[in-house]
Structure formats: structure tokens, C-alpha cells
Task: structure prediction
Amino acid sequence: MLPNASKALHSLVLALALSHTLLPLFFLLVAADPVTVPDLSQCQLAVDRPPAGPNAMNTYLFNCCIPIVPAHKVVRFSLDAYKSPKTRVRHPAHRVSEEYIAKYNKAYALMKALPDTDPRSFKVQADLHCAFCNGAYRQGGAAGDTPLQVHFSWLFLPWHRMYLYFHERILASLIGDPSFALVYWNWDDQRDGGNVLPPMFARNGTALFDENRSTSALSGSTLIRLSPASNTTNTTLVAFENLNSMYQAMVTARTPELFLGGPYVLGSDLTNSTVISAPLGGSIENTIHNGIHYWTGNRSSILGEDMGTFTSAARDPVFYAHHSNVDRLWDVWRFHLPDGERHDFNETDFLNAEFVFFDEYANMVKIKVRDVLDISKLGYKYKRVSSDKLWIRFSPVPASNGSALPAAIASGVPLVGPAPLNGTIDLGKKLVARVQRPSALGVKRPEHSEEVLTIEGMDVVRNSFVQLVVFVNLPGATNTTLTSSAEYVGTFNVVPSASQHRRLMTNLKFEIGDNLKRVGIKKDDEVVITIVVKGTEKVTIQGLRIGYEV
Ligand code: C2O
Result:
């Protein structure tokens, strides 16, 4: 494809996003170029800024530049060349044997003992993450100086899959055990002990320990909050909230965009996008993945290190176990849910996006998204766990009693439509709005489509923890409302991480059809939407839209 600046800038058009007609919404991808390996000789210092507080105006610079290797050490990935002799089986971290833990610890100890200049070292492994999250490299080509960012879009799941794949191979080779596999932090398990920091990572003095963690994580016994919304301390209610978070993020998020996130191509800029082209993170990334980062990092350290900010997250060995579970859930979503297989994107801008990693021979490997869409071909798999069924079959119960719409109309709750009709809306602590459904305009629902709420042009300063919790039909929701009900549609958690730009602008999408069905709302032409904001930063949006998406 030809490099073409204007093509790159207008790389993708969300058809009808700005339309006043509210016709069914479909993605229309205009030809663009996929992101490709940046010019690695042009590395800049990565930038991070602390959450609000006495240091809020300070800028912290990190050298996360990755080693440059001679040309003969740069190879292209192929499934054949990287075929593993045995299938590696990733087990839940809280279930592995002492023997396994000893092996795991040894592998990380060896990796940490390598000199920082070795591409296989723990330092370089952590730097790879920092480099592609905090602006060390530019996209190059037609996109020029635009930073390359692997979060908040469809790049998130495949990039982290590749990252873990090579990380695991390096560990395996260091201990000379080709069957060695990473564990996964089974935080979604609300029954069998997965929802605390896995004990193997909590042993002080081992290579798996990291003292830069929150007191909850260090205690090893506090229950994880997958979306820390209501602050209830009742452990049964926490478990129900966690199950509903999983249900909303995994089961009802059926479309590739809802689950993987939106398109990110050459020229996509997360800090300066217009509403019409802003990508977005997928359901697991935005809600639970970000929530675990925040939960694990030390909130009293300047940047929330280690897990609480992307610059340092991968310095904590539990990072890789966290992402192993994220990766597992992608595989479950794609191949193993009871209602059948789902689909990833098949756009070439997705399939041909290309990145670099280091393998166990310290070679630099170029690898494309298309290479990693089926883990059985990559030679590893996840041990299945029956606790998945708890969230797969979770059946959230309504908290409301009938439609909230008549009372909302009577009390003057405003009707909010798509951008740009509304200008900029400051959410304050909470926004309650009525939003028209496509049925109101006689739009017929396409087959196999989902009814999706889009929060358009959410704009937030990224150096502080911010959370948006979204409900349907629950105008009275507050920042202590339980998120275990059928009205809860999802949460957006911002991991504080301000690279050279302090802002993040993105669209957020949530499936709401399943919620409305459970609440018993069929015929209403409008839905009452409540967005509760937690955190201290101002959050604005450009509009609200409900459409059908496939
Ligand atoms: Cu690259 Cu969990 O973040």
C-alpha cells in the first residue's frame, strides 16, 4: 500500500458516527496502512507523570530503549522455525506444585541475573513494555512523529500475546526445559482461590517477589476487585461484582470491536484523535485488565509502581502471569464459549500489524498479528478450569423495578445524542441522560447484531486513576452502587500513565442489549444511562449514541 499522509490521517471512518439519522451503525474501513516496526535507531526517553499530588507536575524520564542487534540477528517469525517439541501447558498460578514454583523461581532468577545489555534479560523484557507504552518510539512513515502505543486498541491482545510467547521461550531456554510454561493468574476464579495475589508471587526474598506492590497485594489474602466500583467489603458481594464484570466483559461482548478494541493503524494518535477516528480498548482491557494493574501497584509510590503504571508494570514478575490470564481469556472468548466460536478482525490492517521481540537466542524477531491468532499453532495451551462456568453462567438480577424512563422524562433528565450536537459535556461526578435507541427511528435490527452504547470522545487526563461506571435504567446509581446487578454494563478504568501527552481521548463501547432484556425493557424508544465518575480528574465526553453493531 502506498504511504499517503491524508489516507493515514483519515484512515478509518466510523460510518454514521456523526450522523443525526441514527441509521444502523457499521464500520467502514477505508484503506490504510497497518502499523509496522518503527525505526529502532530513533528512540526517545519514555515519559511518565505521577498521579495527582505533590509531585503531579513532575516529569519522570526512563530509558527503555531496546538493544539494537546486528542485521544478521534480525529474523522473521515463522511457525515452522519456532515449532516447539512439546505443547506448553499454562496452569493457574494458585494450583501449581512446589516443584513447579521452584522451577519458575529459578527461571526468573536466571533471567534477572543476565546483564542488562542482554536482550533476554529481565531489564530488557520490562523495557520492551515500557518502550511501546510510554512513547519511546514513533510510528514513522506517513505517521511521522506519532507515538506507537500498543494499548487502548485492537493491538492490545495480540501484542501482549507475542510478548509473553517470547518471554516464555527465554525462560524455558534458561532452565533448559522446553516444556516450561508460564502460569496464569486466575483472578476471574471466584470459587477456588484464584482471586488473590497468587501465593507463589508473594514469597519475600524470591525472584518472583516484588516489594513495589499495594498493601492489598502484598498481604496475599485480600480479594481482588476486578472493577473496584462499589467499595463493598462484603466478600460475597465482591465475588458477585467480579462475576458480573467477567460476564459483561466476556460473554455479552460478542463483536470483535467490543472485545478486542477498535482499529489502530498507521497514523492513529491516542492523544490527539478526533471523535470520529479514536480507537478504543476492548472490554477485558478497559475494565478488568486495567483494574488489576491498579489493584496490584503501590498506590503510595510516586507513579504507582510497579504494576500501577505501564512504565514499570513489567518489572513485577506477576505482570506476566496477569497477562497470561488476559491471553487465556482471549482464547476462551474466541474458541470455547458455549454459544460457539467468535471472530477476530479480518482487516489486513489488523492482520499485518508488525512488531519486534527478542527470542531465546537473543535474535530480534519480527512478527505479525496474523501469526498469533490461534495458540494451538503457537504450541501452547491453557489448562481449563471449571470456575469459568461461574461467570459464563452468571445471571445478574435487576435492581430496578420496571422502566425508569417515564420518571426520567417527568423529572427533566436531558436527552443526549451523538456528537457533535452536544458540544463538550463535563461529566462531573455523574451524568444521567436519556439516549434514543435505533428502534425509535424505525431502524431494523440486523441479524446477529448487538445493541451497543457508545460514549463518544471521552477525554481524560491520564495521570490519575479515573473510573467510569456505566448503568442502564438506574438513574439513582452512585459511586457506592453495587455492580452485580443486571443494570451494570461495565467500567472503564484508566491506568495512570501519561506519556509525552497527558490526555487520552477515546470512544467507549458497551453492549447493553443483554442488560435491557434482563431488566425487562423491550419497547422503550429511549434508555436512561447513568455514568458515575470516580477519581479526581475532570472527564468530558462529546456525545452518547446507541446503535446496532455486528
Ligand atoms: Cu501492557 Cu497490562 O499492560
User: Anything to note?
Assistant: The first helix runs from residue 5 to 9.
